[in-house]
Each structure stands twice: as structure tokens, then as C-alpha cells.
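Pilot study result, target chain (477 residues):
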Amino acid sequence: MKRLAALVLPAIRWDPAAGFEPALPAVEAALALGVGGFIVFGGERGAVRALTRRIASAAPHPLLVASDFERGAGQQVAGLTALPPAMAVASLGEPALAEAAAITAAEARDVGVAWAFAPVADLDAEPSNPIVQTRALGADPDTVGRAAAAWVASCQAAGVLACAKHFPGHGRTTADSHDALPAVAAPRAALEADLAPFRRAVAAGVAGVMTAHVAYPALDPSGVAATHSRPILDGLLRRELGFDGLVVTDALIMEGAVRGTGEREGAVRALAAGCDLLLYPRDVAGVVDAIEAAAASGALDARRLEASLARRRTASGRAAAPHPLDDAALARHRERAGALARAAVRLERGEARAVRGAVDLVVVDDDAGGAYPVPPRTAFAEALAARGVRVEGGGGGGGGGERVVVVFAEVRGSKGRAALSAESRRRLAEALAAPATVVLCAHPRLAAEIPGRGPVWCAWSGDVVMQRAAAERLLAP
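Predicted structure:
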């Protein structure tokens, strides 16, 4: 076992065909090294619970098991509750956010996840941002700050650590840090707005802050990513904002983390800059060897490393123990998620027309063909059919039903853009040659790209919970 391995959090990914079994040899090797935790992607409820119990019993110390639960535990774990996107819930006010956070935390504990990588504290500041959009809580710094603080307080009161991300703010980028090292050219005065939600999250006692693989020349003229910037992490986050919790990198597999450095050197630079934990490296053993060597040579300050180890131990002690939920509790969570989703669906343009009898359905899918699978596109039609509406496809209008055009165009990693593609705009123009109601499963500002003056409902995303909610709102506007 290597002592500094406790500062590394590898990933465990679910294989839809084989479950967690293919990942277990790498997990066991990481446990033998002495890693400090894991980030879990995907899985079924029972399998995730079994996995977290297994790794907890095999670990030499308490682990921090984390997951991206921005849209509830159901975002990652099948069988748990999927919630609307953060911006959709935030549109309903802070009590709704607190409820969403409490549901998320309860279900995280159900499967042994101690740390939810949420909330996104970035501002929705740049319309062409390809990766933040509806993941943000809004655009106004004060509103987002209060919303982030409400989410943090509720999540942590329920026993699960929260994590504000991506410091000092990913909302102004026009590139995705998965694919590039973006740079934000805004002056320091403008960046004060971006910092405001993080200040509120820190004041609320947030357990963790995740760094952005983004450069901010106004904060650090060297042009390195915030993840590698001592002026940003040590000077701004630690000293100016007064944060003494865990600073965790965004995933080290991302291009913004390794551009110009490589994974091992980038990991060392991140710790030297003020990060405590290294998230999701590909070469776990190589990264551990690199930071051990840097510590032995004096390239990494021993006192800083001790402080990081202590913060990890403190954080793992703050998280409540796993607590299985009964079926009745899960049913209540799903009911509340549906209610939040229905409340969030809103008429963005035009006058609502109630759907009756039959629907002539057209789907314009701007998200198809990307690197990651999309949610099922059938939930909207199924929800209408379950309520007695005859659903016909093709948009031909021959069935005499109300024409409804569903547009899927949400934020997706590797998509590389925020606007609709030329092909999607062409298909929309064709579909809207005749009067129709549009259901926009995307950021509400994309309503400006919808031709005509007919009604446009905003459903925020293509998640199943939002498709169902949109169908129900069309039936009773």
C-alpha cells in the first residue's frame, strides 16, 4: 500500500452487458494501492449497493465513494429517482431545490455513495457554452448563490457531502474542457459574478469544491488551467474565500487536464497548486508513483500533502453511514420528482392548446449520433398513449390529430455546440410548415430558434421524467 494513494479517486464504470465484473480487477488493484475512494458511473441499484459494500470491506481506510448526481441519484443508478435538470428545479425556488437535494442524499445513502458531485455553481452566462447550460442553477449571481447554498445545506443535512463545481466558474466558456483547454478572457471585475455562488456555497459549509480545467488569465496570467493554478486555488479559493474543505480535480481523463502536461505531470501539478484529491486518472498506478516520487524529491510540499490527507479523513468521517430505503420511500420520491417536473414545464411562447383524442407526432433529435447514449425517446408518446391519446408518427397530418413536434437538444459532452444544427433547423422548418405545438427538451433560450409563432413548451431536457411531465402538461395546460 502507498500512503499518498489515498489522494486518488479512480472511476468504476458499469458495463451494460457485464455489470461491474469487468472493472473488478482494476478496483482490487486500486484498493491494494490504498486509494481514497472512487467515482461510480452507472449501475443498477442492487449492484451499486453490493459494490460499495464490497469495496468498503476491502479498503484499508474509510473510502469516499462519489458520483455525479446533478439530476438525482437516478442520473447514474437505475432503480433510483431521476430528477429534472438543476435549472428546471431552480426555476421553482429554493424549497424545491432543498427537496431535490434531500431526495438525492437519501438515495445516495441507499447505495453507499457518500459524496454527491453537485451542485453546479457555474453561471449560465454564455449562450454558446456547449457544456453548462441547464446544468447551471441560473444566470443571476445572487440567485444562483442562494440556490447553491440551499442545495448544499439540504444535501449535507441528510448526511451526504456536497461539492460545488467548477471553480472558479465554467459558465463563460465557449469550449468543452472534455475536449480542449478553454480560456475565459473576462477581466477580474467580471469574474466576481462567477465567484459569488462559490462564496455562498463556502459560507454554507460545502464539503468539497471541484476545479475547472479552464484557464483564467485575469486570475493567473500564466494561462494554466485552474486545476494547476496556485494563485487560483491557494490564493483565491483558500485564502480569499476561506475554504478549508476538500478541493478535488475534475476528471483527469479530460483534455483540459492533460493539455501540455500528460496525466502524471498534471496530477503532480494539481497537488502542488492546492488540490487535495485527484479524480479519475486512467493510469492509477502511474499517477500514484508520480506523486510518491514528487513527494520524495521535495517537489511536493510534505505539509501540504499531510493537510490533504487530513482533509480526506475528516470528510470521510462527516458522511453518514449507508441507509437502505424501503419501497414506499422510493415511491414517494418518484411521485415528488414527477410533481417537480410537471411544475417546471412551462409555456415559453404562444397560447397553449389542449391535446385531445389524437396526436400527429414529429421528433427532431439534435442529440442523436453522439459519443454517449441518449435517454429513450419514446416516453413522451407512451405517456400520451397511457392517457388515451392516439399517437401517430411522421407528421403527415392524415390522422386529423393535433401536430406536436418534440425537439431534443440538450447539453451533451462532446457535442461541441449549444445551438441547433443546420439539419435540425431544416427539419424544424419542414415540420412547422403547418401549425403545431412544439415541446422543447432543451434550454428555454432555444425557443428563439423555433420558427413561427405557435406555442412552445419548455421541458428543459430529454430525460424520461421530463418527457412524461411535458405530455401531462399538454393534456391539461
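One observation from the pilot: The two ends are 61 Å apart (CA to CA). A full batch analysis is planned for the follow-on phase.
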